Amino acid sequence: MRNFCIVLFLWFLLPLLVPASSLVIRDTTRVFRLVELALEQHRNGSPDSSDYYFKQADALADKMNFENGKLHVVGNYSVFLYGQLRYSEALHYAEKALQISLRQHNNPRAAAAYNTIALQYQAQGKLKYAAQNLMLAIAISSKISQPVAKDLSDRRKYLNNLSSLFLDLNDIEKGRRYALQSLEIALQLKDTIAAGNSLINVMVAETLSGNLTDAEKYGKQYLTIGRSHGDIQMQIKALNNLADVYRRQKRYPMALDSYNKALAILPETLPGNKVYSLSGISTVFKEMGDIKRAEVYFEKAFLIAEQELGRTQLIDMYLAGAEIKEALGDYRKALTFRKEHERLNDSLRNQEAQQTIQELEVQYQTAQNKKTIAERDLKIVEQGAELDRKNKWIIIYIALITVLVLSFIFIRLIQMQKRKTASIEQKRKLLEAQLKGEEKERARTAKELHDGVASILSAAKLHINSIHQSTPVYSELNQLLEIAVQEIRNISHNLAPEMILQEGLAYAIRSFCHRINRSDIRIDCYLLGEIPSLRKNSQLLIYRIVQEAVTNILKHAEASEAIIQLVGEDDRLLITIEDNGKGFDFKQIQSQGIGFRNLHARVKMLRGDLDIRSVIGNGTSVFIEIDCSKNKKSKREKTSRHIATSS
User: SUPFAM superfamilies of this UniProt entry (predicted)?
Assistant: First the structure.
């Protein structure tokens, strides 16, 4: 009895503790569509257009307060900005992605954000911060006990970036170790491009170790992968790194040829690559003793180096410039480059020292704060224990009286709720039986139309065709019969959409949209994501919902355009049906319209939510959200479907 009373008490209080909120369904697909357009423009070599679409998506997500969309935008935008060498902006958006991911407890996206932040710090020469963030990304990824392919792909990327970081620090052994771990995952996933991206770091490690034969072998493998997939950036990296291997082998003509091949295929939309080719050619000529030509290519590289290279790479540029100017006897310019080299080198070292001191201070302050908090908590516990001893019996008496009173109230409420639930269930069953009866009658009518009237008209058409007449009357009669046969078939298909049972919901809705398109109204159909697997009767109900809404548009809206959207998100299906017609008074239709009642009844059977918005003169929007976890196919249905497709 005691446990029962406690359960009743909690049952009563929980609704009071959780604030009620109304579900507002928004059309969020435009945010994702804008990101897709941005990525498409970037792939097509139009970074300005890509940047424009990213900003539009970001603004729209902010306006709608759509946090999932915001995370999708800033995550992709930060990666785009990094590729455009806009490191500060990329860091800003990566930190936004991290904040949203942590707030949503989305660990995989948080790890991706840490990785992007690390790339920005690495480009800015803040290698310690880069390492810390990469380690956080790897730590999160490693905690996933049963990783799927996407998790493993992300882990490979983080390990490969960590390899690159250690190579920048000239820690060749660790760079090779992490590159090989990354390559192992890529081979496990059978991802050729990922394997190539890991292979390039193995090649660099072998080059820096002096294992030039192995480095050349890996470079050629990487170049083959880039060419087979048509990836220009992979080809450029392979050619530049192979050229560096040839230079170290003193095979200078091959080195120059490889650098020039990289320049020949280099598009303007891939910043940061031209500097490596030009500076590499300059180094080759310097080692060949042709200092004048080395200077020419160095000047070309230096013009774009400060805009396109990270701080660690600029150190090497200043040193190369100093050596070239010294060889030419231009000691004043050589001194300037030497000073810049020393200044930047010292700046990075001082920055590392300051970061270390700050971290030690933070650790100390954290330890002190923990000690203070522990002492305060101990005092609070002691005071609480004393208060508990004084008030224990008073609290027990009040609690018992409260529980007894509330138990009586809760029992009555439960009885009322049971009666209400039984009544609702009975109404639901009656409604389901009514709709099943309607579907059965539709199927019977469709069969009679298809097997009866359509067959008669087809036979009449065959008889007319057998009469060898070429007069306009016969031609027109033949055409009218063809139209009649097609119209009866359309009516039959609308009454009994058998393609739902055979090809699935997505195909059925596309076919429906194709059939009803007319010259006076354009109806577009979009299906985004993967439509969840549903029971056949649930698919039929969704088809009827779309059919009812579109039929209302054709009959009453006087619209010129309409849109049907189905968006699959895990176990949710979002349906949006909109038109630009004359609209209607929703309150009047709600009370009188039979079509509205049918629509609402079908959505209710699917245990979904329906939201209809209409303004006179501004069209109508119908939003439906269905929890597909409550309407999924049973194991028996899935087995039957498998057997049917296998035979």
Answer: ATPase domain of HSP90 chaperone/DNA topoisomerase II/histidine kinase, TPR-like
> Is 109 a domain residue?
no
The single-letter code of the amino acid at 224 is T
Q: Return the amino acid letter for 596.
A: F
Nearest 5°: CA angle at 87, between 84 and 89?
95
Nearest to 247 by CA among 298, 218, 214, 207: 207
Rounded CA-CA distance 81/74 in Å is: 10
pLDDT at residue 108 is higher than 90: no
Other CB atoms within 10 A of residue 399 CB: 13
CATH code, domain carrying 632: 3.30.565.10
Residue 428 has pLDDT above 50, yes or no: yes
**Which of 60, 125, 58 is CA-nearest to residue 96?**
58
Would you say residue 507 lies in a domain? yes
Side chain identity, residue 137: A
Q: Of 127-141, 342-356, 542-556, give the lowest mean pLDDT range.
A: 342-356
What is the distance between the alpha carbons of residues 21 and 461, in angstroms, rounded to a whole number?
62
Q: What is the pLDDT of residue 465?
A: 64
CB atoms within 10 A of CB 232: 18
The residue with tokens 């435009």 is 30
Number of H helices, E strands in the chain: 25, 5
Q: In which domain, by residue range, is 594 found?
A: 501-646
Chain length of the chain: 647
CA 310 to chain centre: 29
- 404 phi and psi, to 5 degrees? -65, -45
CB neighbours of residue 456 within 10 Å = 12
What element of type H or E holds 574? Answer: strand 572-579
CA distances from 316 to 209, 241, 250, 335 (A): 18, 16, 20, 15
DSSP 629: G
Structure tokens at 502: 């055979």
Cα–Cα dist 142/152, whole Å? 9
Question: For residue 144, how many C-alpha atoms fall within 13 Å in the half-sphere facing its CB?
Answer: 20
Which ranges constitute the DSSP H helices of 289-330?
291-308, 311-328
Cα 368 to chain centroid distance, Å, stands at 42
| Mean pLDDT on 213-231 | 89
Give a yes or no: residue 239 inside a domain: no
pLDDT-derived band at 368 (thresholds 50, 70, 90) equals very low
E strand or H helix that includes residue 522: strand 522-528
Q: What is the pTM of this model?
A: 0.47
Assigned domain for 54 exists: no
Work out the pLDDT band at 365, boundaries 50, 70, 90.
very low
Q: What is the mean pLDDT of residues 425-439?
A: 62
The total number of structural domains in the chain stands at 1
Name the amino acid, one letter, at 517.
Answer: N
Q: Which long-range contacts (CB under 8 A, 24 or more apart) does 479-487 make?
A: 481/457, 484/457, 485/454, 485/457, 485/458, 485/461
Give the strand order in the sheet containing 522-528. Answer: 522-528, 561-569, 572-579, 620-627, 609-614
